[in-house]
Amino acid sequence: MTTLAPLLRQRLRRDAVQLSVWIGGTAALAAAGYPGVRGSYGDEQERVALLATVIANPVILLFRGLPSGAGEAQMVAFLLLPWLLLLGALMSSFLAVRHSRGDEEEGRLELVAATPAGRSVPLAATVVHGAVAAAVLGVVVSAVFVASGAPALGSALVGAACLVVALVFLGVGLAAAELLPTARGANSLSVWVLLGCFVVAGVGNALGTPSDDLTRMTSSGLAWASPFGWAENVRPFDADDPRPLILGAVVAAVLISAAAALHAHRDLGAAFLPERRGRAHARPALASHLALVARQSLPSVIGWTAAGVLVGVLSTSLGSVADRIGDDNPAVTAVLQALGGAGADLARGIVVVFFVMLGVFAACAATQTVVRARQDETRGTAELLLSSGVARRRWLGDHVVVALVAATLTLVGGVLGAAAGAQAASDGAGLVRDAAIAGAGQLVPAWLFAGLAAVLVVVLPRLALPTAWALVAIGAVVALFGPLFGMSAALVDVAPFASAPVPTSDGVDLRGILPLALATALAVAAALLAMRRRELRA
């Protein structure tokens, strides 16, 4: 085990920037909670009215935490805890795959295995590395809550919940890396498990039992099938019950042990679910590099489009509750109108809010497609392609083209879902029109992130992945949470998703369409021009 310490130091140096972004971003979100709640829901009567509205609508509970009282700290936990848990879980699962299957694909683990470290020490280093990162995240989040004026015990439990959920998904990532033969497949499996657990907890909360005063909710049994449900049932600043976290710690230990057992019974480079063999000869439709990129991106594009359909359905099916929200809580009305544009009615505001979220999904689809070029480069497959006569600009340009199509399909799926969800609405045609305008408006921001990712792949290839995803995350947090946290309109509009065109009663508010379109064109052009002079594996 004398090789463990050097391995840990090497991994900490590699991950210094990425972990700083993840932990700093999570801490920033936690820090924004108190000022936001004080600015938007400073009066307890407003908070009680908001909770009553939320509890009365199960769909809203899908995307929020577990209501546990109308106090200031309880409100912050209700609004933020699921998202803090989500960020911690993503950080851990990506870390696990990066240092297990990812290093194996790139040949690093084979080199390390040839040293006295052998086969088992790298896995142990990954576990310790992930646990330390999760612990730092938990401590930082707790410190931010305490510094904001929250009670110490509840703050410590929020941090502990982030730590335990992160450890659970560290185990999920490690197990996925043992089961699947590629880092891309392992990351996809981990993210789908994570999103499934998030939705299960949300459905479990939505099917729960409200208290008589409509300020608390008791989860249904379904929530106890998800790590997010365990963490939310700690009820920080209310019950302060740490017992659900014991279940999470046990599951994390089981998953990590299972990954270690699987690792001990497979050869380096092998997997328990081997990659499916393709045809010996490609079909004529795969004769071009563009078709190859499209084929490789097809599973993720289908996933993002399906998510778009779901968000679209929710965007218009919530129209029936808009009037009730407006009657019960002026603060919520103000937030929806800030996102939907001055003078927006509430139904339109809800559509715009959901399509801002869908714009984030479309940007994720585009970013994932473009950064795949960098992953192909590090694996060496890009070098093989370029040796077959594919020009460098075309190699990158095909990824950008498929990214633009992926973002477009995600938003088209959202509009089709909105049309399906508006069938029972009294103003269905109007809602579909609003959804179509909002969807078209989010196209340019999503394309802009594709262009930015392409620039990063060319200019900062080693930092392209974390930086590209960090830009999307920052844009999403500012656009989705900025009005909720009382940020000024000028600051929120810096986020491309928030400055996209929106529908109005008179037509369309074009907002920042021209600067966004110009920035997108410049980013794509700059990336393609610079690619001519960039060497592979730079």
Q: How does the major sheet shape up? A: 2 strands, antiparallel
Q: Determine Rg (CA atoms, Å).
A: 23 Å
Q: Tell me how many strands there are.
A: 4
**Helix content, binned percent:** over 70%
Secondary-structure content class? mainly alpha
Query: What is the rounded distance between the termini?
Result: 34 Å
In terms of DSSP E residues, the strand content is under 5%
Mean pLDDT: 85
SSE sequence, one letter per element: HHHHHHHHHEEHHHHHHHHHHHEEH
Order of strands across the main sheet: 1-2
> Uncertain runs with pLDDT below 50, 5 residues or more?
none
Number of helices: 21
Describe the structure.
This protein has 538 residues and is mainly α. 73% of the residues lie in helices and 1% in strands. The protein starts with a helix and ends in a 7-residue tail after the last helix. The mean pLDDT is 85.
Task: Give a short synopsis of this structure.
The chain is mainly α.
Layout of helices and strands:
Blueprint: H1 4-14, H2 16-40, H3 44-55, H4 58-62, H5 72-105, H6 108-113, H7 120-147, H8 152-179, H9 183-206, E1 209-210, E2 217-218, H10 227-232, H11 243-264, H12 289-317, H13 319-328, H14 330-340, H15 346-379, H16 381-387, H17 392-421, H18 428-459, H19 464-481, H20 489-492, E3 502-503, E4 508-509, H21 513-531
Antiparallel strand pairs: 1-2, 3-4
Helix pairs in contact: 1-7, 2-5, 2-7, 2-19, 5-7, 5-8, 5-9, 7-8, 8-9, 8-11, 12-15, 12-17, 13-15, 14-15, 15-17, 15-18, 15-19, 17-18, 17-21, 18-19, 18-21
